[in-house]
Task: structure prediction
Amino acid sequence: MIELAYLQNEIYFPPLENATPEGLLAYGGDLSAKRLLYAYSRGIFPWYNEGDPILWWAPDPRLVLFVDEFKLRKSLKKRFKHFEVRYDTAFKEVMQACRTVPREGQEGTWILPELIDAFCGLHEMGYAHSVEAWQEGELVGGLYGLVIGKMFFGESMFAKVSDASKVAFAHLVSRLKEEGFTLIDCQVSSEHLISLGAREISRQEFTEHINVQISKGNAPSQW
Result:
């Protein structure tokens, strides 16, 4: 039986091989910028419900999208003209929408107020970014994630209008390709993301990619 590590003040995580078969690695700790950046740079992310301790995950396999494998269908490309895509103009609003906008097959949310506060802090530091789809001055879709080096760690997306989040995602992929990124972390399996070209790789392969991509620079990025 695997005994989960309990995190306290020290910025530490056990080896990823210690995770449960579901990918749960540790619990406790905090959502400080230092801990979050340390965790993501090692392929670990927080995911928990209200009332639970902070749970830290490193699933195996890991869902990722290699940007060169993105499937941009003609029908989606035709939808580009219906949206204005912006970056980092409404970061907190994107997170709040990801928290509140209902999604098919999903009840509740793990995007708790303390997580929003923590990621807004990372946004102010230049690590967390939003990609937003607008129509007539209204935010109708988007996504947010974390950038360390040349690695984009996707967190969540939402859409109030059909294809809004997909258009934002397509623009993100194009921008990342231009800036020398090769990989987007999508965390856990999702039919929606698989339809866009995402696929699963082993945790070991994923961490090898992380090590390469974050070594290309750890300075906060300007979007």
The chain has two domains: 5-60, 63-214.
